[in-house]
Design a protein that fits this description.
Elements (H helix, E strand, L loop, with lengths): L3 E5 L6 H12 L2 E4 L1 H14 L7 H9 L2 E5 L5 E5 L2 E2 L7 H10 L3 H17 L2 E5 L2 H5 L5 E6 L2 H14 L6 H17 L12 E4 L5 H15 L1
Helix pairs in contact: 1-9, 2-4, 4-8, 7-8
The structure holds 2'-deoxycytidine-5'-monophosphate.
The site of 2'-deoxycytidine-5'-monophosphate has 15 residues, from helix 2, helix 4 and helix 8.
């Protein structure tokens, strides 16, 4: 049987970078499910469809194809109708659209099988918001990775500034808080720690310490 590690937590807790490194150390595949919601959001933006529950959104979901592929190095790429959109889904606007569109039950249902199929045949670390609670409730390891909003905003600010994006810390902090609110208050699959998860708080940890903390939880459970 393949092994699944569910890694959930709020935006900017470092899930993706930590999970990527931990997956490499264990020779597991890393699956970033946020990229899927971002891709549906991008599809809506491009089609001029608002990220709200509507017949237009239903029609859009009928026509789009979202796929995950992996390079030989194990890096994930997400395809929208056959085109790699991995870079285009990383803007602050795409983050906000993803947060809104991910609250819609039909969008979550649309992406559910794709996520579950990934876990059937591979040893994986899957990061998201509802992996331990909804997508993979039987995952052998469940981790809730979190950090203070200020620490998370600070890290995201640094990341975007290093990419040359013209961003303000205050704007990012208010985005982080707004997304936290959206993600934890939505009716369907809200962000919350699974009852059987282990919480890792990275507020006071640097990157290497965070990776070690996550690997320690995984090694203890398997
Ligand atoms: O992890 P991320 O920032 O790339 O996620 C983008 C948005 O998608 C985020 O606001 C929450 C949502 N999301 C979700 O609802 N469920 C997931 N499994 C992953 C992401």
């Amino acid at each position: 049987m393949s092994i699944a590690v569910a890694l959930d937590g709020p935006a900017g807790a470092g899930k993706s970078t930590i999970a990527r490194r931990a997956a490499k150390a264990l020779s597991y595949i890393y699956v970033d499910t946020g990229a899927l919601y971002r891709t549906v959001g991008l599809a809506a933006t491009e089609a001029g469809v608002s990220p709200v529950d509507s017949p237009e959104l239903d029609d859009l979901l009928q026509t789009i194809k979202v796929e995950l592929t992996f390079t030989e190095q194990g890096e994930q790429a997400v395809l929208l109708n056959g085109t790699d959109v991995s870079d285009r889904i990383r803007t602050p606007e795409a983050s906000m659209t993803a947060s809104k569109i991910s609250a819609i039950p039909k969008v979550r249902a649309f992406l559910l099988d794709l996520q579950r199929d990934m876990a059937k045949t591979n040893d994986i670390i899957m990061d998201g918001r509802d992996i331990g609670t909804v997508v993979l409730p039987d995952a052998q390891v469940k981790i809730f990775l979190t950090a203070s909003p200020e620490a998370r905003a600070g890290r995201r600010f640094k990341e975007l500034a290093e990419k040359g994006m013209d961003v303000k810390y205050e704007d990012i902090l208010s985005d982080v808080k707004e997304r936290d609110y959206n993600d934890t208050h939505r009716a369907t699959a809200p962000l919350k720690a699974a009852a059987d998860s282990v919480t890792v708080d990275t507020t006071e940890l640097d990157f290497e310490q965070s990776v070690e903390a996550v690997l320690a939880v995984i090694k203890e459970k398997i």
